[in-house]
């Protein structure tokens, strides 16, 4: 079946097997390898991208069901594969605070962090928000809870938190 | 494994593994008809058509003898593999393969009735037993005795990047891009079985998404990819092991049952230490975790005994997982020490100070450095230990019981021989440095560059580093906290020899290859790192759920070459230790023989929300007895003792002693 | 994964017709459970009918209720101001489930119809009556930490994993369903069923019936409600047990009315009506809550691995009441 997508600003029109997940389409067909396959079952967050501006897993999304979607991966946040000079503020913060070790979870962490701060700015509550009806704040506890869908087996959580805290303060 | 870098070309076929659904017996038939009829499926490999392995090899490694016979030795063994034009077709093809078996009785779990054996050696090469003095007599006379059993569960390494191999057979040479901690180790274990020279198996591991021991050696999937590639010449074969398959095929930590007996005087001074471990290996390949070896050097006591007993089971073979031996062994030892502190009414730090040996109790050799007491004292300061109430269950904050706990940590220092490095002068004062190191996330790329630059006396920007390629030559794995020191020693040796041979301003194109020199003093010393782990634990008054708001490690681990990398390793160890303390638990179903909590939703590892304020500090030091860089290795020590510190803190919070991992809410719910 | 046809109808009736006509067809919502199962081989449909293009993605408030379209995503629903104010237990239940990414993807109807997390159900190499009728139940005598302690049968001891469903069961929600024969309204407590002899059926829905909406009645109980979940990890983990509680007190502090439902204990969200009855007219003290819970738990069945669930359901319920009395929701 044919699917049209925007991937990191590039228009893509491909024919896919309906069984193909968005993650496999990106990685295997389009050679967009920033999103990683840590589990293939929604249990780790390493395949996270921004889909129509929201953080989204790609391993549990069928490509055919995403027709028309606009996808931004960690690579796209940086302005494409050669975008080193143009890193997103969140990416710079991860570098500055050593927010990774092996780097495998990192593209997912970064997309998730960007999407998460947007949710916070929109006033979405979380499991740890003491008052459901009040505007949530970017406390450490809130950041940790909201980022819990992104596992880091290397245990780089300390640096990840510091990076996101800095970005949250900068954007507040 | 990322394929943009190190890609072996387009056109790859996808390989999917088919695993046995019995624990022991024989494959009667592999019916591939339906699979082959599925669009996109190219071929199905099984024992009848796979290329033959291990010809002329004595005692081949059975883990790697994939698809060579009908014998099934554990549930989850590779019994077939499907090659297809796409991942979708390969997965469905694998689902359509029908395997029939003749099943035999299998023993897959150990219990009170299991036959146990004392192995010849435990890993890597320690005696399985030790016995000094008269432990039984000392225990019989001891005024205070702690006699308890401690349990650690099966644990799976679960690096976030699953194991993956891309293999290409060009008719003469096999090229593998492999998610590995040791590309040379992979090449040298696969080559003889394939009937190839090591030089004809080229393994590269440019980027590796963590390993924690599970990528330290070649496992069956890598060999399966190699076999499949040989059947499909000139087309790369890609195999991504699924998360679920990793639970059977890429190693794990054995369950351990440690019976500990500590005998002491009323002031807590130990007179006897007895550590009896029961653990398991597979019936068909031995892996004997060195669970009690740290007990031999940890504390002074006249009478000391350790023994490892192995159950040989029809299961997947266990393998290395971060701090193999020390992690489960020190959990038992350090909880037992906490129990002794409580029994004697002595502060846990004071107790450890009172049992500090002057020389290695096991060998009588002096320690190159032993600064455990300093670590404990520095940690006590940083953690406000002085404020701690003596009694358990005496502090609450809102709905939480609050407690703190401490445990010692240790890990042996090793420099692995058999590494070589090559230095070549280039244009404009630059040098190419080749070493078979690999970077699995520890930052060894950065560290090697820095070590090479220091040894050559040039700026790091003048060093072009080549690594992660088996064709560079012999190199040991990124594991056992030995990588930086071992590869680094070779780099230092090559750099020094290069300068000696070619001077400070060499012409381009000059080359020196060298291996690490032995350090004679190493023989005469006991070489260990030490640390102290402190945890604050909160236990929910009603539900019993646990949180660890504070975790601190203070380490004496030799020279710190790069503080950023070091801190990251310590954090990573501490957090994995926390994860084992609170979460990790592989449940092997004794009726089936495989682990049924085989994904990241049922095998929990710590998530962001489980982590509080984690801190790591180290003592300034250098240890030139171990390595020419003064380093001792940092990769494992953070995980050792951490689960014990958490269990001890949970006891302090609640008065409830938990002796098996993980420590979960059900022990505290009221 | 078996090859399948994919349809994306724009009209609910068409979606219903497509699935009703084909025994091998399934609805597809956000896919976070179904795609997982396609990969595992737990289910092998020949046709997927994507229902996310049907509209049905608005939340409408009237004086008496809140009507939630089935395609409202879990995160949007949890953040909806009306829900947060009027049905905090529902918002809390959603926020306690899965992860930020999954909640952005998961739909209301899909969440309710997610299937058990029983490890054997997900492992096609082991017998499971729910997956393959008559093959046996591996969870009995196997890994039991998440097993049911109430209402299980000799055929199946699985628990229902949805947090949302528990809050809906407590607060008297109604599930609106469109079938080939028109619309039905099902009380949330009657959407899921106990396993009895047929664990292959999770719910009382018939093949081809589409959830179109969920309606939540407003009430003082709903406005003073909360959700308490105990789990093995601080976040991103299914419930060991959970409790949704709504409380309405008289001026003197006695219980005028109360709603209690539990997750993690049964094949369906367990509405604890006997406990509710015991508490009505009483002071909601810790002892009274515990006693009421124990009445509901008579007849519970546990083994070594699941025994902890009884004290834990007591604890979560007591704590939920404690929080409501303290004024937090
Ligand atoms: C790692 C992980 C952790 C999770 N943790 C939690 C948790 O803690 N708590 C929790 O509650 N959930 C949890 N979930 C489950 C998650 O909430 C569900 O997967 C999700 O809500 C399902 O919604 P969906 O729209 O993606 O459903 P889908 O996967 O699209 O569908 C699920 C089922 O519902 C059917 N269906 C979908 N829509 C309709 C409809 N409108 N009418 C009729 N049938 C329909 C489908 O045919 C399918 O059978 C977790 C999931 C994962 C992967
Ligand atoms: S408990 Fe139910 S779902 Fe689990 S194995 Fe038994 S029948 Fe299957
Ligand atoms: S790969 Fe998608 S969540 Fe793990
Ligand atoms: S950096 Fe390795 S998994 Fe996060």
TrEMBL record, chain A:
<dbReference type="Pfam" id="PF00111">
    <property type="entry name" value="Fer2"/>
</dbReference>
<comment type="pathway">
    <text>Alkaloid degradation; nicotine degradation.</text>
</comment>
<dbReference type="InterPro" id="IPR001041">
    <property type="entry name" value="2Fe-2S_ferredoxin-type"/>
</dbReference>
<keyword id="KW-0479">Metal-binding</keyword>
<dbReference type="GO" id="GO:0051537">
    <property type="term" value="F:2 iron, 2 sulfur cluster binding"/>
</dbReference>
<keyword id="KW-0411">Iron-sulfur</keyword>
<dbReference type="Pfam" id="PF01799">
    <property type="entry name" value="Fer2_2"/>
</dbReference>
<dbReference type="InterPro" id="IPR012675">
    <property type="entry name" value="Beta-grasp_dom_sf"/>
</dbReference>
<dbReference type="InterPro" id="IPR036884">
    <property type="entry name" value="2Fe-2S-bd_dom_sf"/>
</dbReference>
<dbReference type="InterPro" id="IPR002888">
    <property type="entry name" value="2Fe-2S-bd"/>
</dbReference>
<dbReference type="GO" id="GO:0046872">
    <property type="term" value="F:metal ion binding"/>
</dbReference>
<keyword id="KW-0001">2Fe-2S</keyword>
<dbReference type="InterPro" id="IPR052914">
    <property type="entry name" value="Aldehyde_Oxdr_Iron-Sulfur"/>
</dbReference>
<protein>
    <submittedName>
        <fullName>(2Fe-2S)-binding protein</fullName>
    </submittedName>
</protein>
<keyword id="KW-0408">Iron</keyword>
<feature type="domain" description="2Fe-2S ferredoxin-type">
    <location>
        <begin position="1"/>
        <end position="77"/>
    </location>
</feature>
<dbReference type="GO" id="GO:0042597">
    <property type="term" value="C:periplasmic space"/>
</dbReference>
<dbReference type="GO" id="GO:0016903">
    <property type="term" value="F:oxidoreductase activity, acting on the aldehyde or oxo group of donors"/>
</dbReference>
<dbReference type="InterPro" id="IPR036010">
    <property type="entry name" value="2Fe-2S_ferredoxin-like_sf"/>
</dbReference>
<keyword id="KW-0560">Oxidoreductase</keyword>
<dbReference type="InterPro" id="IPR006058">
    <property type="entry name" value="2Fe2S_fd_BS"/>
</dbReference>
Automatic annotation (TrEMBL), chain C:
<dbReference type="InterPro" id="IPR016169">
    <property type="entry name" value="FAD-bd_PCMH_sub2"/>
</dbReference>
<dbReference type="InterPro" id="IPR051312">
    <property type="entry name" value="Diverse_Substr_Oxidored"/>
</dbReference>
<dbReference type="Pfam" id="PF03450">
    <property type="entry name" value="CO_deh_flav_C"/>
</dbReference>
<dbReference type="InterPro" id="IPR002346">
    <property type="entry name" value="Mopterin_DH_FAD-bd"/>
</dbReference>
<dbReference type="InterPro" id="IPR036683">
    <property type="entry name" value="CO_DH_flav_C_dom_sf"/>
</dbReference>
<dbReference type="GO" id="GO:0016491">
    <property type="term" value="F:oxidoreductase activity"/>
</dbReference>
<dbReference type="InterPro" id="IPR016166">
    <property type="entry name" value="FAD-bd_PCMH"/>
</dbReference>
<dbReference type="GO" id="GO:0071949">
    <property type="term" value="F:FAD binding"/>
</dbReference>
<protein>
    <submittedName>
        <fullName>Xanthine dehydrogenase family protein subunit M</fullName>
    </submittedName>
</protein>
<keyword id="KW-0560">Oxidoreductase</keyword>
<dbReference type="InterPro" id="IPR005107">
    <property type="entry name" value="CO_DH_flav_C"/>
</dbReference>
<dbReference type="InterPro" id="IPR036318">
    <property type="entry name" value="FAD-bd_PCMH-like_sf"/>
</dbReference>
<dbReference type="InterPro" id="IPR016167">
    <property type="entry name" value="FAD-bd_PCMH_sub1"/>
</dbReference>
<dbReference type="Pfam" id="PF00941">
    <property type="entry name" value="FAD_binding_5"/>
</dbReference>
<feature type="domain" description="FAD-binding PCMH-type">
    <location>
        <begin position="1"/>
        <end position="221"/>
    </location>
</feature>
């Amino acid at each position: 079946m044919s699917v049209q997508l925007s991937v990191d600003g590039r228009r893509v029109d491909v024919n896919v097997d309906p069984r193909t997940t968005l993650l496999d389409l990106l990685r295997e067909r389009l050679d967009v390898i920033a999103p990683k396959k840590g589990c293939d079952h929604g249990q780790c967050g390493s395949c996270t991208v921004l889909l129509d501006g929201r953080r989204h897993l790609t391993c549990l999304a069928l490509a055919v069901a995403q027709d028309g979607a606009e996808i931004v991966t960690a690579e796209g946040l940086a302005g494409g594969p050669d975008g080193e000079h143009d890193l997103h503020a969140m990416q710079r913060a991860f570098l500055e605070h050593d927010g990774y070790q092996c780097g495998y979870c990192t593209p997912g962490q970064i997309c998730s962090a960007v999407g998460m701060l947007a949710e916070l700015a929109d006033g979405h509550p979380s499991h740890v928000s003491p008052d459901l009806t009040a505007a949530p704040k970017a406390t450490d506890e809130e950041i940790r809870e909201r980022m819990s869908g992104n596992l880091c087996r290397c245990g780089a959580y300390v640096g990840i938190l510091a990076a996101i805290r800095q970005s949250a303060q900068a954007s507040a | 494994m990322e394929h943009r870098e190190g890609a072996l070309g387009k056109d790859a076929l996808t390989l999917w593994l088919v695993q046995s659904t019995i624990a022991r017996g024989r494959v009667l038939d592999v019916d591939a008809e339906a699979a082959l009829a599925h669009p996109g499926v190219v071929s199905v490999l099984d024992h009848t058509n796979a290329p033959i392995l291990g010809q002329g090899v004595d005692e081949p490694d059975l883990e790697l003898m994939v698809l060579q016979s009908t014998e099934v030795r554990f549930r989850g063994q590779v019994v077939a593999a499907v090659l297809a034009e796409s991942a979708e077709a390969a997965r469905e093809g694998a689902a359509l393969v029908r395997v029939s078996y003749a099943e035999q009785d299998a023993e897959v779990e150990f219990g009170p009735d299991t036959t146990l054996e004392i192995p010849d050696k435990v890993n890597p090469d320690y005696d399985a037993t030790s016995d000094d003095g008269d432990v039984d007599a000392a225990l019989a006379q001891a005024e205070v005795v702690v006699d308890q059993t401690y349990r650690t569960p099966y644990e799976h390494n679960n690096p976030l990047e699953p194991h993956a191999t891309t293999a290409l057979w060009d008719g003469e040479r096999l090229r593998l891009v492999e998610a590995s901690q040791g590309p040379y180790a992979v090449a040298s274990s696969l080559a003889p079985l394939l009937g190839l020279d090591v030089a004809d198996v080229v393994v590269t591991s440019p980027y590796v998404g963590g390993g924690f021991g599970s990528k330290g050696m070649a496992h069956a999937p890598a060999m399966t990819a190699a076999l499949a590639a040989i059947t499909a010449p000139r087309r790369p074969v890609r195999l991504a092991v699924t998360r679920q398959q990793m639970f059977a095929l890429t190693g794990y930590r054995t369950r351990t049952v440690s019976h500990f007996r500590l005998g002491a005087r009323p002031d807590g001074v130990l007179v006897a230490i007895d550590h009896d471990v029961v653990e398991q290996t597979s019936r068909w390949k031995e892996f004997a975790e060195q669970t009690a070896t740290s007990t031999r050097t940890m504390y002074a006591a006249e009478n000391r005994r350790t023994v490892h007993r192995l159950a040989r089971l029809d299961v997947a073979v266990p393998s290395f997982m971060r701090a193999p031996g020390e992690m489960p062994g020190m959990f038992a030892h350090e909880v037992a020490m906490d129990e002794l502190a409580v029994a004697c009414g002595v502060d846990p730090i004071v107790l450890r100070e009172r049992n500090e040996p002057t020389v290695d109790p096991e060998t009588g050799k002096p320690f190159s450095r032993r600064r455990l007491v300093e670590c404990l004292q520095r940690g006590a300061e940083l953690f406000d230990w002085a404020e701690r109430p003596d009694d358990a269950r005496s502090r609450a904050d809102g709905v939480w019981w609050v407690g703190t706990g401490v445990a010692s940590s240790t890990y042996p220092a090793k420099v692995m021989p058999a590494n070589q490095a090559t230095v070549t002068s280039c244009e404009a004062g630059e040098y190419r440095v080749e070493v078979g190191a690999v970077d699995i996330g520890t930052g060894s790329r950065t560290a090697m560059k820095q070590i090479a630059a220091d040894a050559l006396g040039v700026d790091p920007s003048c060093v072009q580093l080549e690594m992660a390629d088996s064709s560079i030559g012999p190199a040991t794995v990124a594991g056992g906290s030995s990588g930086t020191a071992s590869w680094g020693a070779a780099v230092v040796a090559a750099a020094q020899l290069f300068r000696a041979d070619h001077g400070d301003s060499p012409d381009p194109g000059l080359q020196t290859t060298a291996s690490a020199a032995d350090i004679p003093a190493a023989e005469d010393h006991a070489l260990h790192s030490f640390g102290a782990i402190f945890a604050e634990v909160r236990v929910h008054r009603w539900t019993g759920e646990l949180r660890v708001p504070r975790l601190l490690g203070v380490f004496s681990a030799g020279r710190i070459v790069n503080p950023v990398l070091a801190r990251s390793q310590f954090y990573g160890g501490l957090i994995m230790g926390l994860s084992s303390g609170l979460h990790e638990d592989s449940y092997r179903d004794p009726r089936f023989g495989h682990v049924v909590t085989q994904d990241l939703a049922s095998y929990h590892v710590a998530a962001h929300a489980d982590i509080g304020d984690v801190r790591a500090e180290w003592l300034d030091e250098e240890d030139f007895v171990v390595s020419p860089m003064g380093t001792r290795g940092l990769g494992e020590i953070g995980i050792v003792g951490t689960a014990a510190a958490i269990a001890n803190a949970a006891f302090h919070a609640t008065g409830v002693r938990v002796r098996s991992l993980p420590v979960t809410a059900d022990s505290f719910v009221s | 994964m078996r090859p399948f046809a994919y349809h994306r109808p724009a009209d609910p009736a068409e979606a219903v017709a497509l699935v009703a006509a084909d025994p091998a067809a399934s609805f597809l919502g956000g896919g976070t459970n179904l795609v997982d199962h396609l990969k595992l081989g737990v289910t092998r449909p020949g046709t997927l009918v994507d229902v996310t293009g049907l509209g049905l993605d608005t939340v409408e408030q009237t004086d008496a209720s809140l009507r939630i379209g089935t395609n409202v995503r879990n995160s949007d629903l949890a953040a909806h101001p009306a829900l947060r104010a009027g049905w905090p237990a529902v918002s809390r239940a959603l926020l306690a489930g899965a992860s930020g990414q999954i909640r952005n993807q998961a739909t209301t109807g899909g969440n309710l119809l997610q299937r058990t997390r029983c490890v054997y159900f997900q492992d096609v190499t082991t017998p499971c009556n729910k997956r393959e009728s008559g093959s046996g139940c591996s969870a009995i005598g196997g890994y039991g930490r998440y097993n049911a302690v109430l209402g299980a049968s000799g055929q199946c001891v699985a628990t229902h994993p949805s947090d949302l469903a528990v809050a809906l069961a407590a607060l008297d929600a109604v599930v609106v369903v469109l079938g080939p024969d028109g619309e039905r309204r099902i009380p949330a407590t009657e959407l899921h069923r106990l396993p009895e002899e047929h664990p292959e059926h999770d719910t009382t829905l018939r093949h081809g019936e589409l959830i179109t909406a969920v309606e939540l009645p407003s009430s003082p109980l709903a406005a003073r409600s909360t959700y308490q979940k105990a789990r093995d990890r601080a976040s991103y983990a299914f419930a060991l047990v959970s409790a949704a509680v709504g409380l309405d007190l008289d001026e003197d502090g006695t219980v005028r009315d109360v709603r209690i439902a539990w997750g993690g204990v049964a094949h369906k969200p367990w509405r604890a009506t006997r406990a509710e009855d015991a508490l009505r007219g009483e002071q909601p003290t810790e002892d009274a809550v515990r006693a009421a819970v124990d009445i509901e738990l008579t007849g519970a069945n546990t083994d070594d691995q699941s025994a902890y669930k009884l004290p834990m359901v007591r604890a979560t319920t007591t704590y939920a009441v404690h929080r409501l009395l303290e004024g937090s929701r």
